[in-house]
Amino acid sequence: MTNHWIDLQHSDCILIMGSNAAEHHPIAFKWMLRGKEKNGTKLIHVDPRFTRTSARCDYHVPLRSGTDIAFLGGMINYILNSDKYFKDYVVNYTNAPFIVVKDFDFNDGLFTGYDKAEKKYSKETWVFEKDAAGIPKKDPSLTDPNCVFQLMKKHYSRYTLEKVSSITGVSREDLMKVYTDYASTGAGDRAGTICYALGWTHHSTGTQNIRTMAMIQLLLGNIGICGGGVNALRGEPNVQGSTDHCILYGNLPGYLKMPVASLDTLEKYLKKYTPVTNDPQSPNYYRNYPKFYISFLKSLFDDKATPENEFGYSWMPKLDDGTPYSLMHLFDAMYKGTVKGLFSVGTDPAVSSPNANKVRKALEKLDWLVSANIFDNETCSFWKGPGVDPGKVKTECFLLPASATMEKEGSQTNSGRWVQWKYKAARAPGDAIPVGEMFIKIIDAVKALYAGEGGINPEPILNFKSDYINRNGAFSALKAARQINGFFLKDTIIDGKTFRKGQQVPTFGMLQDDGSTCSGNWLMAGSFTTDGENRMTARGKDDPTGLGLYPNWAWAWPVNRRILYNRASCDINGRPYNPKRKLLEWTGHKWVGDVPDGGWAPMADRENGKYPFIMKADGVGSLFGPGMAEGPFSEHYEPFESPLSKNPLSSQLNNPALHVFETDMDKTASASDTFPYVCTTYSCTEHWCSGALTRWQAWLLEMQPEAYVEIGEKLAHEKGIKNGERVKVSSARGFVKCVAMVTKRFRPFLVEGKTVHQVGMPFNYGWLFPEDGGDSCNILTPSVGDANTHCPEYKAFMVNVSKIQEAG
Amino acid sequence: MDVTRRGFLRISGAVGSGVALSSLGINLKPTKAYAHELDKMNRVKAAKQITTICCYCAVGCGLICSVDKVTGKIFNIEGDPDHPINEGSLCAKGAGFFDLTEANKYRLQKVLYRAPMSDRWEEKDWNWAIARIARLIKDTRDKDFITKNSKGQIVNRTESIGHLGSSNVDSEECWLMSVISRTMGLVYVDHQARV
Amino acid sequence: MNKNELVKLIDTTKCTACRGCQVACKQWNEMPGLKTRNWGSYQNPPELGWNTWTLVRFQEYVDSKGILKWLFRKEGCMHCTDAACVKVCPSNALYRTEFGTIGLHASLCIGCKECITACPFDVPKYNPHTDTILKCDLCYDRLKGGELPACVKSCPTGALSIGKKEVMIENAYTRAKELGGDANVYGDTFVGGTHVLYVLGEKPEVYENLPARPAVPLTIVAWKDWFKPLSLIAAGGVLIGSFFHYITHGPKDTGGNSDQTCKGGGE
User: Residue C264: pLDDT above 80?
Assistant: First the structure.
């Protein structure tokens, strides 16, 4: 989230789209309802299904799964044609005035530079014209036909009400209702926000779904302001923390880039990822990249990392350039037999991964599996799953008992980036220990083997600093947290102030690229004070701005900033656009309010002033985003499995940059009579994700005891299915049996002149427990992913539903 | 470090989740109530109160665990009225947090091992399991380690071991898993952020 | 008027059916979750039970303008002023507390099930394991400790609140007026006024399992006035009570004999 939970109440209009906030973030939804009660916040829910969220919003608009870009593209078209954008913001704080090179073009669903064989774009034409000084050329009048604003206007002019309505199945009246309500926030004194979740990421166009909305937020001047922002309602307790520490193939802690094979030296690596700008007014904060990366290596290898050995750069694994290693790629490789061992910690991919039958088959090919959990689950026990003969499974399996969250000390980062320290309330039962302790024990044992026997590339293992253990031999989260924050490794003078060796680095601005500081994750620098006080434990309730920022409750990254890009809440002279919700103000010599995105003067000061989007090389928000795999603007493509055989907007049916898997278990069926219904998957309030924790809890299981499929009354009538009956749901990949929940809350869509039915299933169930609870709906989902993130397309695929003709 | 909370009955906000009844001027003096019916409330008041953070969605709600000072066991968990986000309230999963403690009979308490071709788990101790896991890691890594890729570039990686998880553990643990997996050369490193 | 009288207000128009209350109740009162089946509804267990003292009911409803609504109603003891259950209870297990709520001394309950038949809201439930009645006592222990009832404390949205009777009645009417349309206050005008009030978004008759005009059956008034004093003097009071029950109500199934709270579905 750019903003945070409590801030939602300050919004004038909240678009909940790709999220079922009331069910999955009930306490977050409280803040939306509080806004409605106290500030008249309008709540709009756009979702294929009427949910508990819809029930409490001002209104609900159903749309066909997988058509969000069409819906939002129509909104961009409306905003631009009706002059609803916030001009001052758009001109100054976005790349709308930037001139794109003449060769850039878009034609019939494809941007320039597409390589059909490779299914990839080369991005030579996705760049700006530059002046003699090397600074992008701009047209502040926004009239140049090749400026971003005009190109965008042209691109989205194709998203007419008629076209969008026909694609999405939303009536033109409903489209206009949402567009006008939401676009009303494109004024300085109004704020609109978007609350999205997996309903947007789980698509083959997931990243572009979010980008389209980010563009809308930039056009309306809604980023960086109180009550605004782009807010991902993240769905797991510490998914913000785990993402910040990048348990992700392509990144290292703090979103640093994982090295690739072509960057064989540290110098090449740093050059590649340290952006440059010739514009003196752009802070280009990532110019500090080498400080973050070298401090990271120092945190791993301590004094073994030296300038002479490139701080250990050469020891670290390198990815092949342009090759993804995501969850789906892992299971694909495992299925093909190249992966022999797997760690599966606090996760249940046999239930939660797409194409679960393939995942389960892949697991059978492992030599060993190490799982750690607080309960058993379908992944740990895959060898006794349905249709599996344990006598034929060679896999050596370990199931390590873990401490539950209240049985250990440590921090968790919520979606609003608040890093909250928590305490150990009780001993874990039996032999259970924290996962952190398991990994220290494992790496120490591996280290001992390499020390004793030698082996290949032993340096990163032998030199890894792993002493995060307290006097009793137990895991010390506090010690690890201190290392993550970072230390001065020698006495250092910065701006006249002396920091002694061993003191904590108080902010990432003080990290060094010469090996004199360490920091396990630069974003977390500042979570301790120089004197070692743990700011994550702070529990102050003071609220100086009156906006609920609670600066002394826990600590938020970066540097305790509560709302990101907050300097964009003021005009170029530093005056708040909305004096009633004054997040920040320039007093003439400093910023007052939230911790500003850099202390520089506002940009009207041509000498000392800086642009507000400090993490972007150009210093402004990107309406034109060349970083994306499938285009600098978004475009509607049909889900990989769709009810349509032709994209109503172009000849390009699917995302052109999509990576498709091709094993015998990766069958798909699009626009097929065999699988005529759109299916989407989700969770429910009473369970959490795969249900691996919640199915073992009787209070929760009692409320949602078994797998079900929600079917609209019309489709149920056509199929002769009665409420509560058992049905079979099938896709090209398999089938599951479950209870039919016949409901008024799913209604068919009129798409391209034909009726399209949609059904939906929760993904909370698995064969292990309860025994009669049904199996995972991910047996049905395809392993197809977003072109940028490889996030699977769980939210739109094709199925059939049929009545089970069996006795009783 | 742990924190003993005395704010269990703290008053804040309107007549809703964050308030104590005494703020309403209600007479709470003992009358004819049966002692055993008040037991739990008395136990809560006598207990050590330790705060924690909810482990489901990423809202980050605060909870208070009431821990019996004699047994050291948690016997009640409810919302923390001081927490600025949830203000004492909880959803169904949060309200049922107690069922994640050892009171839940399904909690794993022993290291379990399943040998190749076996049809059951057997209990093991930590020392045995860690030694065996370390051996498997080293043998797999040494056997399959890729020093150079097909283009001859140095890549120093282990493609034959994968790591999944987890957004369900503390940040310090996440960091350790993220970096330990890379020191072992792993590239198939992923977790729930993508699913 | 009793200055200590409390009223819990349930504003159904603010409820998101997160069911924090349903679980918080079980957590505090240490009631188990039992085996259920999905019977084609989110509502589970399907009805109140000995282990389920409060239940969020889910109801899909299309109003007269054709607008789809999903109605959520937290169901549980209404804590009547003119409480039929207290009137019929032969052993004084059910009693009125100083807060005006209906408490239960479970140790005094003899399992006669009189209250089950008497209750106009179908609230008390029989626990076959202990041979006693169980129902919500509005967390009497917590009230005594100065704490909010577990359900009220857990409620995120302000759908549940508790306070002095006159204040809550006023809050309820203010809210109903603010909502307009068919919104109404339910509870203060019958059975002597309940200590649980609803703000309903729709007319009472729209809601499943909610009596539009609840009343204490005349037979129970008669029982209280004539038979109960007599029967308590007599040693065989309980027997007479049961006999009276049988002749006035017939062999009504008072349920709760199974831990399987299945409805509809099953195989």
Answer: no
Cis status, amide bond into C45, omega within 30 of 0: yes
Q: Residue C236: pLDDT band by 50, 70, 90 thresholds?
A: very low
Q: How far is B73 from chain A (nearest CA, A)?
A: 6
Within a domain: A354: yes
pLDDT tens-digit series, residues C16-53: 999 999 999 999 999 999 999 999 999 999 999 999 99
DSSP states along chain C? --TT-EEEEEETTT-----HHHHHHHHHHTPPP------SSS--SSS-BTTBSEEEEEEEEE-TTS-EEEEEEEEE---BSS-HHHHH-TTS-EEE-TTS-EEE-GGG-----HHHHH-TT---EEETTTTEEE-----HHHHHTTPPPHHHHH-SSSSEEEEEHHHHHHHHHHHHHHH-TT-EEESTTSTT-BSEEEEESS-GGGSTT--SS----HHHHHIIIIIHHHHHHSTTHHHHHHHHHHHHH-S-------S----S---
Chain B residues within 8 A (CB-CB) of chain C?
8-9, 14-17, 19-22, 24-28, 30-31, 33-34, 36-42, 44-45, 76-79, 81, 86, 88-96, 98-99
Model pLDDT for residues C238-259, shown as the tens digit of each residue: 444 444 444 444 444 554 445 5
Q: Which of B111, B154, B172 sits opposite A264 (nearest CB)?
A: B154
Is A140 within the bounds of a domain?
A: no
This model of the complex carries an ipTM of: 0.97
- The pLDDT value given to residue B13: 28
pLDDT at C217: 79
Residues A231 and A245 occupy one common structural domain = no
Chain B residue numbers with beta carbons less than 8 Å from the beta carbon of C158 are 14, 16-17
Specify the CATH architecture of the domain C6-216.
2-Layer Sandwich (3.30)
Are residues A596 and A579 part of one domain?
A: yes
A697 vs C contacts (CB less than 8 Å): 33
Q: Read off the pLDDT of each residue in B124-138 and give the average, rounded to a whole number.
A: 98
pLDDT of residue C231: 54
Q: How far is A418 from chain C (nearest CA, A)?
A: 20
Chain A partners within 8 Å of B161 (Cβ) = 339-343
Measured between CA atoms, how close is B96 to chain C, in angstroms? 6
Bridge partners of C96? C102
**Nearest CB to A446: which of B63, B134, B166?**
B134
CA distance, residue B138 to nearest chain A CA (Å)? 7
Please report, for the domain that includes residue A354, its CATH number.
Answer: 3.40.50.740
Q: Which of helix, strand or coil describes residue B156?
A: strand
Nearest to C265 among A27, A739, A744 (CB): A739
What does the pLDDT look like over A723-756, one tens digit per residue? 999 999 999 999 999 999 999 999 999 999 999 9
Distance from CA of A6 to the nearest CA of B (A): 6
A57 shares a domain with A179: yes
Say what the pTM is: 0.94
- Mutation to test the C interface, candidates B10, B41, B66, most C Cβ within 10 Å: B41
Residues A346 and A451 in one domain: yes
B-chain CB neighbours of A238 within 8 Å are: 55, 58, 167-171, 174
Q: Which domain CATH number covers A36?
A: 3.40.228.10
Q: How do the domains of chain C map onto residue ranges?
A: 6-216, 219-266
Q: Is residue A792 a part of any domain in this protein?
A: yes
Please indicate, yes or no, whether residues A77 and A225 belong to a single structural domain of this protein: yes
Residues A253 and A227 placed together within one structural domain of the fold: no
Q: Are residues A433 and A360 in the same domain?
A: yes
Domain ranges of chain B: 47-100, 108-144, 145-195
Q: Is residue A634 part of a domain?
A: no
Domain at B47-100, CATH from 2.60.220.30, 1.25.40.80, 3.30.2280.10, 2.20.25.90? 2.20.25.90
Share the mean pLDDT of chain A.
Answer: 97
For A558-577, what is the mean pLDDT? 98
pLDDT given for residue A808 in this prediction: 45
